[in-house]
Amino acid sequence: MSFSIIVAMDTEQGIGRNNKLLVHLPNDLKWFKQNTLNHTVIMGRNTYDSIGKALPKRRNIVISSSLQSLPDAMVANNLQDVMRMVNPEQENFIIGGAQIYRLFLPLTDTLYITHIHANLHADTFFPAINFDKWIKIKEIFNPADDKNPYAHTFAIYKLKKE
Ligand SMILES: NC(=O)c1ccc[n+]([C@@H]2O[C@H](COP(=O)([O-])OP(=O)(O)OC[C@H]3O[C@@H](n4cnc5c(N)ncnc54)[C@H](OP(=O)(O)O)[C@@H]3O)[C@@H](O)[C@H]2O)c1
To answer: Which atom of ligand 1 approaches the CA of 114 most closely?
Structure first.
């Protein structure tokens, strides 16, 4: 069983502040939607609270030790629950936040990273990544524009085979 992580991070690997995203980047939201639509998305309870609802047209799994159920998402109380809920034949996306990225990074073979080319002074960070273990298979640079305040690069990495 393996997972795909999708994340937007700044130059310090920051991912959030005050339980919100660091910046509104419509271009990245489009990229996120394009990649995750019709798939299973797995998130921590803080990230679910931050979004405020389940993401449409996706199967939503929220990991929480305090919740038993949600009206619009499946609740997993631990990693074992998630393993029972996902289809190993499909691509299952880990969509954050930091605690959940940390939990799943060792089980992940694909990273979709949006590198935001700025320090946005986060209070929440992606765990350390050893990029020697990953090979970049795609890279798309996007300059800042009227709607997207910072330049950013969409990159996809695959775990190198041992
Ligand atoms: N930049 C990005 O791409 C991106 C993506 C997603 C989120 N974010 C940001 O990340 C921040 C939130 O991250 P976070 O680390 O604070 O929270 P999180 O990972 O979203 O959620 C943490 C919660 O998940 C539950 N949890 C974690 N590990 C668990 C385990 N092993 N078993 C059962 N439940 C577990 C706990 O919920 P209970 O307390 O209910 O037990 C815990 O409080 C926000 O700022 C958000 O905007 C950024």
So the answer is: 3
For ligand 1, atom 30, the nearest C-alpha belongs to 78
Ligand 1 atom closest to the CA of 77, numbered from 1: 33
Could you tell me what percentage of the chain is helix, strand and coil, using 3-state DSSP and rounding each to the nearest 5? Answer: 25, 35, 40
Q: What residues make up the domain containing 66? A: 3-159
63 lines ligand 1 (CB under 6 A): yes
19 C-alpha to ligand 1 centroid (Å):
9
What total of structural domains would you count in the chain?
1
Q: pTM to 2 decimals?
A: 0.98
Select from 56, 26, 35 the least CA-distant residue to 145. Answer: 26
**CATH number of the domain within which 143 lies:** 3.40.430.10
Dihedral over Cα of 143, 145, 151, 156: its sign: negative
pLDDT at residue number 105: 98
Work out the average pLDDT over 135-161: 98
Nearest CA to ligand 1 atom 24: 44
